[in-house]
Amino acid sequence: MAREIIFTSNAAKPSPTFSQAVKAAGLVFVSGTAPIDPETGTFKGTTIQEQTRQSLTNIAAILEAAGTSMDKIASATVILADEEDFPGMNEEWLCWFPTNPPARQAAKLPVRIPGLKVSIAVIAEA
């Protein structure tokens, strides 16, 4: 099975330890994506809604680079720094997925990264 590493400069640059996404077996596996502005390299937004929006904007750019789109997401994992941000994350999530949302699970971030409120990973059809 061949795999293709996906990279776009339209999303946050990943660290050297992982790829933005990998395309394999008819799927695109997008790594945990933080709300980093690709132009500045810094977190964008101070609210959970703003950070969720930037994470999903980065994911949309990565999926486009892989030849697919947000409507092809089958599964998502949302990791929050604070469980109290869950309602605000859901508020922004519904703007992106008003109908037929992907399967989703959520967890609490096991480490504190100053300024980071959310990270989102997805699996989409290629």
> With helices defined by DSSP (H or I, 4 residues minimum), what is the helix count?
2
The CATH superfamily title = RutC-like
Q: Major sheet: order of its strands?
A: 1-2-3-6-4-5
Mean pLDDT score, rounded?
Answer: 96
CATH class: Alpha Beta
Q: Helicity level, as a percent range?
A: 10-25%
Radius of gyration, CA atoms, in whole angstroms = 14 Å
Principal-axis shape equals: globular
Q: What about the largest sheet?
A: 6 strands, mixed
H/E series, N to C? EEEHEHEE
Number of strands: 6
> Beta-strand level of the residues, as a percent range?
25-35%
List keywords for this structure.
globular, single chain, 60s Ribosomal Protein L30, Chain: A, alpha+beta, 6-stranded mixed sheet, 126 residues, 6 strands, 29% strand
Overview of the structural elements:
With 126 residues, the protein is α+β, with helices and mostly antiparallel strands. The protein has one domain (3-125): RutC-like (60s Ribosomal Protein L30, Chain: A). It has two helices and six strands; from the N terminus they run E-E-E-H-E-H-E-E. It has helices at 48-65, 86-96, and strands spanning 3-6, 21-24, 27-33, 73-80, 103-108, 118-125. A hairpin with a 2-residue loop joins strand 2 and strand 3. Helix 1 crosses helix 2 (86-96). The longest helix is centred in the middle third of the chain and has 18 residues, at 48-65. It is globular, with a radius of gyration of 14 Å. The protein starts with a strand and ends with a strand.
